[in-house]
Design a protein that fits this description.
This protein is of the alpha+beta class. It folds into two domains: 228 residues, Bira Bifunctional Protein, Domain 2 (BirA Bifunctional Protein, domain 2, 2-Layer Sandwich), CATH 3.30.930.10; 65 residues, Enolase-like, domain 1 (2-Layer Sandwich). It is built from eleven helices and 14 strands. Strands 7-8-9-10-6-2-1-11 form an eight-stranded mixed sheet, sandwiched between helices. Strand 1, helix 1 and strand 2 form a beta-alpha-beta unit. Helix 4 packs across helix 7.
Length: 301
């Protein structure tokens, strides 16, 4: 497909995540993909859903669970949320250009914003957008959310931040830290925000192509099957004798360790940080003698 701007007409999170991945193979970058999911909690590549979500509540309310390919934290999606994906050839995201693009989107919507920390957009101290990225076959896939008119009550009940994050950052409520753009710009709709994204992309990337609205992009069905699989969604949580948890510079890290004869026999790491190499660190931990200081030293290094 040669089109630079693709807008999904599907609200199925597994279709959209599979389609997002499939676009990597199209070439001809940069590209923009816009999509919306029905009620879904999307967790980062290295997160433990049992720690991040209220799975019982989600089951009662028919809220889906999905896992993406990038790192970062858990987010709640519904049809009041716009998801965007940018594609670039290369190994590192061009944050200056991406920042320019996101500011242009905000300008088109009709308000100012500022970047906060590593991956947030905020308005008067409240977050309305977060982002993450990963590399696939030499392509940077940079994606994020814009909260337009999300059900904040359902978001609050679906997400539960780990206790260590609550203690270290004084977090009392998901709802108290976020804001819907519709409360900032009266009359704002998701369609208006889509147009703001399309206009910003044509401006910043000098693209004069018309967007393609589609739900029919052919994607690898085995990929969707993988996204729906229990191994992908829930991971393998080993039996463990020690759980360590700490807030480090990159994010919250939980370490589950099975220790026998003072040797680490099994290790599983969960995190909301943007890095994706935790499996390599798990391998490094296995076989080493246990001490808490040593575990955190290996992780820091």
């Amino acid at each position: 497909m040669t089109d630079k701007i693709i807008v999904s007409s599907s609200s199925d999170p597994y279709v959209n995540i599979a389609t997002e991945r499939e676009i990597v193979s199209f070439g001809g970058f940069p590209r923009l993909f816009l999509w919306q999911n029905d009620k879904t909690v999307v967790i980062g590549r290295n997160q433990n859903p049992y720690s991040e979500c209220d799975l019982d509540y989600m089951n009662r309310e028919k809220i889906l669970l999905a896992r993406r390919f990038s790192g970062g934290g858990a987010v709640f999606h519904d049809l009041g949320n716009i998801n965007y994906t940018l594609y670039f050839a290369g190994n590192e995201p061009d944050m200056e250009t991406i920042g320019m693009f996101l500011k242009e989107v905000c300008y088109n919507i009709g308000f100012g914003s500022r970047l906060s920390g590593k991956n947030d957009l905020v308005y008067e101290g409240k977050k309305f957008s977060g982002h993450a990225f990963y590399e696939c076959d030499g392509v940077i896939v940079f994606h994020g959310t814009f909260m337009v008119d999300v059900d904040l009550d359902m978001m609050q009940k679906s997400l539960k931040p780990p206790a260590v994050k609550i203690i270290s950052k004084g977090i009392d409520s998901v709802r108290s830290r976020v804001v819907n753009l519709a409360s900032i710009v009266p009359g704002l709709t998701t369609d208006i925000v889509k147009e703001a994204f399309i206009k910003a992309f044509t401006t910043v990337f000098a693209c004069d192509e018309k967007p393609v609205f589609t739900g029919a992009i052919k994607y690898d069905e085995t990929l969707k099957d993988r996204l729906l699989g229990k191994d992908w969604l829930y991971g393998e949580t080993p039996e463990f004798s020690i759980k360590l948890e700490k807030r480090i510079q990159e994010g919250t890290v939980s370490v589950l360790l099975d220790i026998r004869d003072n040797l680490i026999k099994n290790a599983k790491i969960y995190s909301d940080s943007l890095r994706n190499d935790w499996q390599e660190i798990e391998k490094t931990l296995i076989g080493t003698t246990y001490s808490e200081d040593k575990v955190w030293k290996i992780i820091r290094e």
